[in-house]
Design goal:
By secondary structure, this protein is an alpha+beta fold. It has a single domain, classed as Kinesin, CATH 3.40.850. The protein has 10 helices and 19 strands. Strands 2, 6, 7, 8, 9, 10, 13, 16, 17 and 18 form a 10-stranded mixed β-sheet that branches. A hairpin with a 3-residue loop joins strand 11 and strand 12. The longest helix has 23 residues. The protein is globular, with a radius of gyration of 20 Å.
């Protein structure tokens, strides 16, 4: 608490897809073990280091266990504001890492081995919550940022834009967003799947189910205040704690010419790329030593405003960088790796 903590950054390299293998793409990313990864291609020869690297063979379980996700759940229960976000090129496996297969629904659940960080964290949170007794109140809110508009994914009816406000006590917050209480795994997974189905996705040349919005699912963990029995002398009430665990599935960065997008799709791509650029800019400035920092431009996009607390100061953050090992994705892969390496230098004071 209050100590400078570095952002924890882990890397996940997805397997080559059937299309890439048929096309004869080369693997240009190789894990060297011990958190290091090597990129070797014509004119490129670079090594990057991370807290952990999960290569193509790593299971969803291994990513959960090795990423530090359990500690994040525990910290949220202790009243910290915790964030995990997945980023990388479109089609690099972000949504799969967080949620598992896209085809799952209430009626057609995914096989347990394929479930992502979110469902595994919910399970662990509820187990911990039961073992700590019933003094925890859990609720969830789920938003998407689509074309720089914030929309509630849980409120019934057609999605309408919600205003983003700022206050001295709360920082940036979304007005009128719905927060739904839950007590069971079925309830929270059902909220997740319901919200995800309302998210904007579309097909283009790189990805059949490309997320066209950034999605933020926040779990609010409130521990109720304890009042000691009246006969205990001088014991004050123990104040309640409020922690959050926020999962951020960023829309993929993409080059419009490679996705073949035009019209509305290219407008979406531009607002996605603009907000990712704003995020990258904030991260580069935050990576400088504290004494040399200038103003951090959180107000440049809705995404950076909503992530201001987790990046810039008082939160605990885990970043999962997702990349493709294919030679054809080399430039995007390198940009994700540089971005992730820079993020490792960011420090927060939870």
């Amino acid at each position: 608490e209050g100590r400078e903590t570095r952002l924890r950054v882990v890397l996940r390299v997805r397997p080559l897809t059937c299309t890439e293998t048929r096309r004869g793409d080369q693997r240009v990313v190789h894990s060297l073990g011990d958190g290091a990864v090597h990129v070797s291609a014509a004119r490129h020869d670079a090594t990057f280091g991370f807290s952990a690297v999960f290569d193509a063979g790593a299971s969803q379980e291994a990513v959960f266990e090795g990423s530090g996700m359990r500690q994040l759940v525990e910290l949220a229960m202790d009243g910290f504001s915790c964030t995990v976000f997945a980023f990388g090129q479109t089609g690099s496996g972000k949504t799969y890492t967080l949620m598992g297969p896209l085809a799952q629904s209430d009626t057609q659940p995914a096989s347990p081995a394929l479930l992502g960080l979110m469902q595994r964290s919910f399970t662990y949170l509820l187990e911990q919550s039961r073992s700590r007794g019933s003094d925890l109140a859990l609720s969830a809110s789920y938003l998407e940022i689509y074309n720089e508009q914030i929309r509630d994914l849980l409120s019934p009816g057609p999605p309408c834009a919600l205003p983003l406000r700022w206050s001295k006590t709360r920082g940036f917050y979304v007005e009128n967003q719905l927060s739904v209480e839950f007590e069971s795994l079925e309830a929270i997974v059902s909220l997740l799947l319901q919200g995800s189905q309302r998210r904007r996705t579309s097909a283009h040349a790189l990805n059949r189910h490309s997320s066209r919005s950034h999605a933020l699912l926040t779990i609010h963990v409130r521990s109720r205040a304890h009042h000691p029995p009246s006969w205990v002398p001088q014991a004050g009430a123990c104040p309640g704690k409020q922690g959050t665990l926020c999962f951020v599935d960023l829309a993929g960065s993409e080059r419009v010419k490679e996705t073949g997008s035009s019209g509305e799709l290219s407008v979406e791509a531009n607002s996605i790329n603009r907000s990712l650029l704003a995020l990258g800019h904030c991260i580069s400035l935050l990576a400088k030593p504290r004494g040399k920092r200038t103003h951090i431009p959180y107000r440049d996009s809705k995404l950076t405003r909503l992530l201001a607390r987790s990046l810039g100061g008082s939160g605990v953050t885990l970043m999962v960088a997702c990349i493709s090992p294919s030679s054809r994705c080399l430039s995007e892969t390198l940009s994700t790796l540089h971005y992730a390496s820079r993020a490792r230098r960011v420090t927060t004071r939870p």
